[in-house]
Amino acid sequence: MSRVTLRVNGEERSLELDPRTTLLDALREQLQLTGSKKGCDHGQCGACTVMVEGRRIYSCLTLAVMHDGEAVTTIEGLGRPDALHPMQAAFVKHDGYQCGYCTPGQICASVATLQEIEAGIPSHVTADLTAAPQLTAEEIRERMSGNICRCGAYSNIVEAITEVAGRPA
Amino acid sequence: MTAHPAPPQAAARGMGAALRQDSALKHATGEARFLDDLPEPPGLLHAALALSPVAHGRLAPLDPAPALALPGIVAVLRPGDIPGRNDIASAGSNEPLLAEGMVEHAGQPLAIVVGMTRDAALAGAAALRPEIAPLPAILSLEEAIAREAWVMPPQEIRRGDAAAALAAAPHRLAGEFRAGGQEHFYLEGQIALALPGEDGEMTIHSSTQHPTEVQHIAARVLGCPFSRVTAVTRRMGGGFGGKESNASWVAAAAALAARHTGRPVKLRLSRKADMAATGKRHPFLYRWQAGFDGTGRILALDATLAADAGHSLDLTAGVVFRAITHALGCCDVPDVALRALACRTNTVSHTAFRGFGGPQGALLIEDVVHRVAGALGQPPEAVRARNFAGGENGAETPYGQALEGALIRRVWAEAQRDADWSARRREIAAFNAAHPTLRRGLGSMVLAFGISFGQMHMNQAGALVHVYTDGSIRLNHGGTEMGQGLFIKVAQVVASVFGVDVDRIALSATSTAEVPNTSPTAASTGSDLNGWAAHAAASAIRGRMAAVAAAEWGVPAEEIAFAEGQVTAGGNRAMEFGELARLAYMQRVSLSATGFYRTPDIHWDRAAMRGEPFFYFSYGAAAVEVAVDLLTGEHRCLAAHLVQDCGRSLNPAVDLGQVEGAFVQGLGWLTCEELWWDAEGRLRTLGPSTYKIPGSRDVPPVLRVRLLEGAPARSETIFRSKAVGEPPLLLATAVWNALKDAIGTDRLDAPATPERVLMAIRGG
Ligand code: FES
Ligand code: FES
């Protein structure tokens, strides 16, 4: 058993866990934060995407003990039904889901995607590596390609992200 | 970071409103609870399955010792531990839950290991060492056909004399091609939670499209009456047909473990186990001969559609029925013989998948059209239009049901117009002339998809509506929610009957204890059937309430109106809906009703293979553009214009999403999703790292979806709407056609992966 302290959605949470416990299992099973989903448990679908220290990560592919002292933001930390994060509101407005299973991961990845573009981090489709990446649909699609939506709600997801990107901060 | 209030529901009532799904806010905030998110009951145990590594062989009785030696193992359940019958067949019989004596496919469950934790159970399952003496396995369609290995007798639909018409036709062609299967990859894998109760009761929470079948199969395995088992489903993280029959055996396994241990048991398949042990879309092999004239009119078609059923019947009868009833698509061919072979192989038993054989059927005529067009030097869309059902050609399908020729022509005309088809043709010709290594292509598709279950008795539904004395309403029906927006659609129906906002309707989990003897939510019939059943229940209560109001006011009941949360008569009488509910209660009038619906007018004669099995048809058309790299075979869909007939849409927001999602799923089936079994019959594509599902970059950058306007259903469907779940999947056939157009090939097997496209380019 190992001890680890995570700052989850702004709150210090101390956990005692098997060092092999993934961050996803720690969130879901120990902290009852079941918004992050398990689609594959192998880093291949994106359903478990959360943000650690502001960067997105597949929480099924990392161990909780590797993040001692770090800040973790999950879908529950972004907003609630009566106080939605702008990205959550945009997903609702644009129907960016059907079954909803991929949605928490999509939203976390979307928020992080916009931050990455803002921070000037280039992607595979960024033509000019020295200039600031543009907020094109192509950039968004490329950066969101690690999150599978089996219901095929991709176009609506891109619309939701585009709307949030275009909105003055 | 500013907090955003939830956007208001667009006028939260009425039919045809683009209301967001009932769970929208919960999905966006992670509050929606899927089965694995439910708080775990005290004493919960976890189950895992031991699966066969061998496709066919004799199985020695399994030694449980290696698992029992590990820490945290509670039980190892083998066939002898089943108190009822070791049979999970949804149709036919003798499909064991746990293999007994004989193994029929790789991935077949052999034992259930129950542990204190999921990890313990998985470790226990992995520790078992099944002894299987391999036997020769049938692993290909060709082999099954050669050996005449069927799961059911061949089916045939005939009209006229195909052989004579072929002989007499001015031109003849023959073809052969194949289409692969498809893994559902519902993002939420198969899962069930079984809770044992008093007196042999068992409550099973299941991620299923068919709670009633979960109830039946679990009861069969447990050896108890159906009334002892309750199956409950709040929502699924995707189903697509994969949770129609396959969810039942997962639930039965959990129930067996719960019965055996007397404790709650959860069984959640790992993605790998899920992909190994559950059925897929049926792969098909096609062989055909067609006769046609110089104008492109197809005069005769003789075709065999061989479906890989896997090792057991499962739902294959329905799949091949739909394949041969849809094999002419939107076209008319006067003389036909269409044979369906349901081949038995040593593979997992293939099952329902969105479209249910319809998409596979439609590929046949599209292949024929493509080849005839090539032979005559005409564009395929011209040959297809030359053969459209109705108009100058016959409107009746070979099995005797008429298609609506005017709608077929209309959807195609609109898709062509939306895509600016002729201009695109010219631009593409210019592009191709200028680029030596890139090729663009155009492809089209026009679909006609019959709506109703092929099994006539399944076309029924029930609903239960309660009105409470504060005017709130609770709705339950037999349909299940898997993201297709069924719950909101049915709630809209009930809201419109009572003239109240949809927010007033409380939706509840589908449960066999509330509405019994239900059909699966499948065949796109969910809102047709359950919408009418809920309408009947709500109307019964409304009638009683209207009588109360009429007596109160001394006016005829016909004058009572329900609108905007009010009940009114004439211009001067009004009361709140809730007030009337209280009044009815005080007068001892029941505010609860069940509703029932059966689809009228459908029939099928199995012996003659004729009838009118569908309540109506949905139509749609697509025009798409692709680009292919001739050096690598890689390709992309650049643009898609889709027109889908949904009748008078119950909810355009939901329907547009369904069309788009279905198209993307069809695109995956036809272009990138390749199931790969090795020479021993083991599926080796067991996760999304090896099985490629369309991602955000695979969707065409230009994707325009339109619902056909001003075309209410002619049949008496609920508010003249039409089903939308499955038909638009067929629109993706346009992508397959466009790829063939781009590279100018005769034959292109599906999925048209870059590898296959490259082989086709090289003529291999
Ligand atoms: S569950 Fe983590 S990527 Fe699929
Ligand atoms: S909404 Fe179902 S997987 Fe994305």
Mind explaining what this structure looks like?
The complex is a heterodimer of chains A (169) and B (764). By secondary structure, chain A is α+β, with helices and mostly antiparallel strands. Chain A folds into 2 domains: 2-78, Ubiquitin-like (UB roll) (Roll); 86-166, [2Fe-2S]-binding domain (DNA polymerase, domain 1). In chain A, 33% of the residues lie in helices and 15% in strands. Chain A is built from 6 helices and 5 strands. Chain A has helices at 23-30, 75-78, 86-93, 103-118, 137-143, 154-166; strands spanning 2-8, 11-17, 49-52, 55-58, 71-73. Chain A has a 5-stranded mixed sheet, with helices on both faces. The model of chain A has no long low-confidence stretch (mean pLDDT 95). Chain B has 764 residues and is α+β, with helices and mostly antiparallel strands. Helix content of chain B is 29%, strand content 24%. Chain B is globular. Chain B contains 19 helices and 29 strands. Chain B starts with 23 loop residues before the first helix and ends with a helix. Among the domains of chain B are: 421-451 and 614-764, Aldehyde Oxidoreductase, domain 4 (2-Layer Sandwich); 460-598, 2-Layer Sandwich (Aldehyde Oxidoreductase, domain 4). Classes of the chains: A alpha+beta (169), B alpha+beta (764). The interface between A and B is large, with 62 and 63 residues. The structure holds FE2/S2 (inorganic) cluster (2 copies).
